[in-house]
Amino acid sequence: MAAEFVSGKALAAGSSQSKIHRRLAPHRSQSGFVSVLPPYTYVPGQSPHPVSDPRGHAYDHSAEPVPPLDPTHPEQSPAWCEAVALFEAGFYWEAHEAWESLWHAAGRTGPVADCLKGLIKWAAAGVKVREGRLEGVRRHCRRAAELFRSALMESGVSPIAGLASVQILSLLEAAQNSLPTAVGSPFDVHPIHGWTLR
């Protein structure tokens, strides 16, 4: 039976509580953009680097430039959908890389770029949890919150349609004060933030 994550609790699909599932980012569940997840999520110093190590899951794959994200229809971007799917599955380093390609395509400045950079920092916080470096988690959550706050102040609304920036900002601020003390094996691939972006 499938489960959803709501406020840090796993709920059986179809249960009455699963109806309050947070939708924090637009995403097509049947997009087909991520057909196969990597065999492991990269944790620095604990697994082969995906790109530079010959044992890496993306070794010898050249990254192609991605087109800029259309902030009014992010769900139409294969790169966006891939990043969201990777993040939701607990592949934080890989999600970080996917959002970073969109950040570069966005010109690295402005409200859309700030939101993307906030997501990059949030994914980096997931990597730091896997490394057991909780001060790094706090630092990345704090920076992600600053970026979301800046984007919201500059644009007045979420610069990426459907992205619940205000709720994400609240969760990032709360995460700085309620970090996990242990996360199990860094090779366990599962979401560690307690809920997904969709």
Entry summary:
The chain is mainly α and 198 residues long. The protein has 5 helices and 2 strands.
Note down, in words, how this protein is organized:
The protein has five helices and two strands, in the order ββααααα. The protein is mostly helical and 198 residues long. The protein has a single domain, classed as TTHA0068-like (Hyaluronidase domain-like, Orthogonal Bundle), CATH 1.10.3450.10. Strands 1-2 form a two-stranded antiparallel ribbon.
What summary fits the major beta sheet?
2 strands, antiparallel
- Please report the first level of CATH classification, the CATH class: Mainly Alpha
Q: What is the element string, with H for helices and E for strands?
A: EEHHHHH
* Principal-axis shape: globular
Overall mean pLDDT stands at 74
Strand order of the largest sheet: 1-2
- CATH level-4 homologous superfamily: TTHA0068-like
Radius of gyration: 16 Å
**Which class do the helix and strand fractions yield?**
mainly alpha
Question: β content, as a range?
Answer: under 5%
* Discrete helix count: 5
Strands, total number = 2
Give the proportion of residues in helices: 25-40%
User: Which CATH architecture?
Assistant: Orthogonal Bundle
Q: Report how far apart the termini are.
A: 19 Å
The CATH topology annotation reads as Hyaluronidase domain-like
What count of structural domains?
1
Q: Provide the low-confidence segments as ranges.
A: 1-32, 182-198
